[in-house]
Amino acid sequence: MPYTELQQYDEAEKSFLESLSLAKKLDDEYGIAHQNGNLGELYFKISTNTDKSHNFDNTYTNIAKAIKHLKISIDKFESLGAIEDQKDYLVMLSDAYHLIGNYKNSLESFKEAKSLQDSIQNLENRKVIAELEVKQDLLNKQKEIEILSQEKEYQNQITTYLVLVGFLVTGIAIIIFYFLLKNKKAKRILEKNIQLREKTEEELRKNEIELKKHQNHLTRLVRERTKELEDEILQHKQTEHDLLDAIERTEVASKAKSVFLANMSHELRTPLVGILGYSELLTSILEDTDAIEMADGINRTGNRLLSTLSLVLDLARIESDKFEIELSEVDIIKQLKDTYQNFKAMALKKKLRLVLNVHAEEFYHTTDLSMLNVIMDNLVNNAIKFTHQGEITIESAVENIGENANLIIRVSDTGVGMKKTDVPLIFEEFKQLSEGFTKDFQGSGLGLSITKKFISLLGGNIKVESEPGNGSKFTISFPTKIKAVA
Fold it and tell me: What are 324-346's pLDDT values in tens digits?
């Protein structure tokens, strides 16, 4: 990876992406796994080598990319049985999680890498023992063959002797002499065989001693490794305990912060509402154009601050467990019409069409009215904000009429849209898509997060469909019972 080593990250990223694309076309599973691993390592190096002048979002984005590609690489290597590569990228994944403070996932990845390392070590040990056993078996077979060859030679000689005795039965003296001579020779052969057997047995004993030494060495290595693992496990347990303590302290601090903000809700909103009242009063009594414009600016800025403050306080109330849901029978159609009227002027100001399509004249649903208004205001406001031309549509419908009916509310636009991979990010607290065109849109990053929490508290769910340049569609679904339809 010369580009990466030279810190030419753009060239490295381009090279890896091209290689990944080629591997996918060739259906090369190893290539796909390696290139995803290279991309994960690249993004991890970018995030760790980034200057302090770079913002946190860029670092977090690179870490997120690194985690994504490392996970793909790990899964691929696992399916291919390449546990050595899987172990290496698990260690890198643990470091990536640690860098963003996700200590739980970091620890889990590290444990998995350690487990694979132990498996690799065990496989290597078994391989060494198996090789020694094979060598020993080969040596035994070879010696057996030599002994059998000698014995066969001896048997052949005995046969020869008997044949000669049959032919030379008349020459007893010669036969006896010959027999004695051959018997002496056979005795020498037998002695030689005995010596060979003893030599073979000595070599076998030496091999057994060597094998025993190696087994003892392996046993000692296993004990040492076991002790190291026990020490590491003890250290990890202590680290895990420290992490759990830190998480608990963080949760307590976050809870205290949320309770404080929830209790300060009235004290923070009241002065700001008073300022807005005075700014509106000034606008109505001032005659100077510049003064009126400044008063309008105060009013706009104040309203924006009040909106942001309300979102922060609502989030704090939810997190502090002091948020109470006030359920009542609400005419959903009337509320959608009110939302339409509230945002009609805002849409016209941007030369956009605001369309309302409802399924009935009236439809009653049990819900919290204020929470429903916040949900609709956030969705329609976002749709107008991210749409330059075209239209925004507010729709309602009822699916599966009967006991298991669902109320459907949908807000769609023809705006800038987003990538599928960015959809989960828009519901995170204080999260804004900071790359590309979305830098031009202001906001706190809380609206959609609170919207999703409110929908969940009301027993519903939200689905997002979007493509870059083709707009977005937000669909809300609430379980409902048919109250009245006109």
Answer: 788 999 999 999 999 999 899 88
